[in-house]
């Protein structure tokens, strides 16, 4: 009997390995996601996302041109009323079908791990999966690190199917387009190629005719429309769209325009989602991961305009996610801590991949997946 058992052990071991492998493959197949969109607001605070417009700022004439009109547009008796007015798609669609993390009033925290709390370090952390103290400026310097976008673009299944659209003209350097080979339409760039649509050609003509508010950041409407047309024409599997107006209006101290921009961006993301659900290539197979590069100051008065390590609270951010594999948990109310450095590995995990880099990266947010 022992002799027979000893002879069978290798076969049993082989069968076990096959069984485990089969289970692993089955678990991978359970994920329906085939495409991932990373969508970012620049510097949108968790305070507004979860609580709506701040009463003390709505009524502050130092930051608002028409306080009565703004109160009518964004005021409300409760935070829940105000946040629905500010971002109706988030709270009437995503909160019912997806998940939102980062309401610190519920001790649900999402935090930047890099020590600087501003844009280039934040986007670097989102896309590489780690915060690098040496990435400490917004200068137009090619990123020495490999992003998850570049990592995916190196794989046969995603080669040539990764793209980036942003309003800020530093993104080509953050993505390191020269090395990565990822097409980047950012700043005041136009659509390129012989196969661009008539709508893209019109955008190319229109963009230089529109007044420039900020030399390094274009209006988000162009970023959005260029990205939407590219989706229809090229069908990228992984796409990062980076909206920027909220940060620039905040820096200028226009709380009214900051709120209106957040509301308009909410509508833009809703339009993207509606298109995705109407396109057979994307429908039922696409996950949106939405976040921000940094928070903003929360005290004293006026600190909301700025961010950085000298402004308390600007390391506080948030996540939102929706797709075929995400439980519809809505606003996450459990006490917990998540990190900006978890985005990159979560993107890969939704695609059935384990992301690695030269530095240790944050772990996937498994709560986002069934």
Summarize the structure.
Helices cover 41% and strands 13% of the residues. It is α/β, with parallel strands linked by helices.
- Biggest sheet architecture: 8 strands, mixed
Looking at the structure, the CATH topology is: Alkaline Phosphatase, subunit A
Record the strand order, biggest sheet.
5-4-6-1-7-9-2-10
Q: DSSP helix count?
A: 15
Mean pLDDT: 93
Q: What percentage of the residues does DSSP assign to strands (E)? A: 5-15%
Q: Report the principal-axis shape.
A: globular
- How large is the radius of gyration? 22 Å
Overall CATH architecture: 3-Layer(aba) Sandwich
State the total count of DSSP E strands. Answer: 11
Uncertain segments are: 1-28
The CATH homologous superfamily corresponds to Alkaline Phosphatase, subunit A
Helix/strand-derived category reads: alpha/beta
The span between the termini is 45 Å
Order of secondary-structure elements: HEHHHHHEEHHEHHEHHEHHEEEEEH
Number of domains: 1
As a percent range, the share of helical residues equals 40-55%
Q: Which CATH first-tier class would you pick?
A: Alpha Beta
Task: Explain what you see.
There is one protein chain. With 370 residues, the protein is an alpha/beta fold. The chain has a single domain, classed as Alkaline Phosphatase, subunit A, CATH 3.40.720. It is built from 15 helices and 11 strands. The chain has an 8-stranded mixed β-sheet, sandwiched between helices. A 3-stranded mixed β-sheet has the order 8-3-11, with no helix packed on it. Helix 5 packs across helix 6, helix 6 crosses helix 14 and helix 13 runs antiparallel to helix 14. The longest helix has 29 residues, at 2-30. The chain starts with a helix and ends in a 20-residue tail after the last helix. Residues 1-28 have low confidence and may be disordered. GO terms for molecular function: catalytic activity; metal ion binding. It comes from Rhodocytophaga rosea. InterPro entries: Alkaline_phosphatase_core_sf, Metalloenzyme.
């Amino acid at each position: 009997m022992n002799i027979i058992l000893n002879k069978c052990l290798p076969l049993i071991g082989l069968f076990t390995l096959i069984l485990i492998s089969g289970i692993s493959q089955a678990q991978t197949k359970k994920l329906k996601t085939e495409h991932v969109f990373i969508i970012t607001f620049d510097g949108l605070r968790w305070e507004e996302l979860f609580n709506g417009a701040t009463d003390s700022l709505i009524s502050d004439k130092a930051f608002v041109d028409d306080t009565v009109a703004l109160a009518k547009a964004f005021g409300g008796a409760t935070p829940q009323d105000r946040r629905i007015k500010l971002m109706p798609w988030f709270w009437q669609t995503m909160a019912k079908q997806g998940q939102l993390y980062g309401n610190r009033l519920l001790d649900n925290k999402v935090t930047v791990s890099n020590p600087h709390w501003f844009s280039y370090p934040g986007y670097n952390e989102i896309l590489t999966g780690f915060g690098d103290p040496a990435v400490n400026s917004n200068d137009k310097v090619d990123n020495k690190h490999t992003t998850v976008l570049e990592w995916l673009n190196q794989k046969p299944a995603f080669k040539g199917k990764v793209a980036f659209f942003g309003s800020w003209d530093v993104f080509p350097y953050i993505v390191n387009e020269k090395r990565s080979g990822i097409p980047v339409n950012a700043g005041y760039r136009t659509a390129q190629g012989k196969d661009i649509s008539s709508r893209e050609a019109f955008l190319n003509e229109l963009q230089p005719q529109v007044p420039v508010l900020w030399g390094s950041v274009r209006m988000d409407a162009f970023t959005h429309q260029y990205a939407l047309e590219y989706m229809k024409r090229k069908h990228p599997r992984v796409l990062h769209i980076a909206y920027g107006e909220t940060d620039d209006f905040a820096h200028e101290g226009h709380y009214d325009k900051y709120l209106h921009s957040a509301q308009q961006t909410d509508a833009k993301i809703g339009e993207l989602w509606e298109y995705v659900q109407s396109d057979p290539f994307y429908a039922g197979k696409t996950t949106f991961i939405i976040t921000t590069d940094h928070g903003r100051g929360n005290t004293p008065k006026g600190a909301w305009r700025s961010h950085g390590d000298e402004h308390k609270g600007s390391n506080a951010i948030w996540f939102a996610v929706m797709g075929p594999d995400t439980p519809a948990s809505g606003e996450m109310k459990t006490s917990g801590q998540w990190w900006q450095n978890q985005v990159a590995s979560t993107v890969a995990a939704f695609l059935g991949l384990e992301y690695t880099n030269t530095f240790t990266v944050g772990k996937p947010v498994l709560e986002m997946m069934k």
